[in-house]
Amino acid sequence: MKWLDRVTESWRLEFPDRDFSTLPPLVRLGRISLLMREYQKRVLKPVGLTPSDYSILGALRRAGRPRRLKPGDLYNAVGCSPGGLTKMIDRLEKRGLIERSSDLEDGRSFQIGLTAEGEALERKAFSAYTQSGDRLMAPLSEQQLGDIDTALELLLECFEPPVESINEERPPAAPVNSGASADAAPQGGIS
User: Fold this and answer.
1) CA–CA separation, 160 and 183 (whole Å)
2) Strands 68-69, 110-114: parallel, antiparallel or unpaired by DSSP?
3) Residues β-bridged to residue 110
4) I need a surface site. Which of 10, 58, 155, 188 has the fewest CB within 10 A?
5) What is the DSSP string of 59-72?
6) Structurally, what CATH architecture does the domain formed by 46-161+173-184 represent?
């Protein structure tokens, strides 16, 4: 990544007394974020899904049988705005991939579940994504993958606020997709 070396050197020349060791990882992370979004779109396009569509189907699959969640639980799993979630649910319901049904425990509420067609498409998308990921990561050794995963886990902890409370010296992470369009990538992307 020669361009980043040049950028880092220009920072050092401009501000010789400043330590810029934190910037290269952040710049790389930003670049990976942009590339990852495009990668997910490219992998899912042949199966007719967007990353946000898949996030709903994947969350319902991960819920286990009967592959149903209450809207609030789905919202927490996907991590997008409530308005964005409603638009995604409406779109997937029109396609026959999910369905709304009365909540038997709470008659005032409903649950969202995968249809047979939605479950089949989720499996196809997940298979396409994992196969593509295997090809993408093939040049890396098992040790390198483990090291990368450990480093990314540490970075993620830097961005996510602690569960117990937010340290006052560290501002909370920006909300994930607040105000984002219904096609914006949800929290975890593909899983």
Assistant:
1) 23
2) antiparallel
3) 102
4) 10
5) HHHHT-TT-EE-HH
6) Orthogonal Bundle (1.10)
Q: What is the pLDDT of residues 102-142, one digit of tens each?
A: 877 766 778 899 999 999 999 999 999 999 999 999 999 99
Please give the Cα distance from 24 to 167 (Å, whole number).
25
**100 forms bridges with which residues in the sheet?**
112
Judge whether 97 and 115 are in contact, CB under 8 Å.
yes
Q: Which residue's structure tokens are 């929290």? A: 187
Q: Which two tokens stand for residue 147?
A: 């090291």
- Residue spans of the domains in the chain: they are 46-161+173-184
Is residue 184 within 8 A of residue 84, CB to CB? The reply is: yes
pTM of the model as a whole = 0.74
What whole-number distance in Å separates Cα of residue 72 and Cα of residue 50? Answer: 21
Structure tokens at 44: 């899912």
Angstrom distance (rounded) from CA 162 to CA 154: 13
Between CA 113 and CA 59 the distance in angstroms is 10
**52-78 confidence digits (pLDDT tens):** 999 999 999 999 888 888 888 888 888
